[in-house]
Amino acid sequence: MAIHWKPYLLDGSHPIEASRLHPIEQAWGVRLPDTYKQIVCRYQGMAPEPCVFNVGGGEDVFNDLLTITPIEGRESYSVMRVYEVLEPHIPTGLFPFGRTPGGEYLCFDFRDAPDSPRIALVTSDMSILPVANTLQAFLEGLHDG
Fold this sequence. Notes:
This protein has 145 residues and is an alpha+beta fold. The chain has a single domain (4-141), classed as SMI1/KNR4-like. Helices cover 22% and strands 26% of the residues. It has four helices and nine strands; from the N terminus they run E-H-H-E-E-E-E-H-E-E-E-E-H. Strands 5-6-7-8-9 form a five-stranded antiparallel sheet. The two termini are 14 Å apart. The mean pLDDT is 95.
């Protein structure tokens, strides 16, 4: 099923140059997946359709893609801001890229796969739940609720 991205934080898309991701990769010491780079450069701050994903025997919703460039008044949606908040509470190697409506975070999990991160959900109580083995598998698994 094809993913369509709809406005969420702004009225339309807010594209960025791929070079804006280099400081994040350097700060985190990782190489972000190419698929993610392509998506976030075009759709930062937007919401996917379909948006439901399977996790822990149930379902959750991929509400929005965090932003690379902070948006005035919406800084709490920035990848770096979310990382700063989560970092003291989660293991090294987890990096946020998306949010759920309940304030949980979809993260790249580089802990066991430095070249091909898994996808994990960090819950509001800081539990870490596996979601998918790759970003591609996660995206392909999105469905309607």
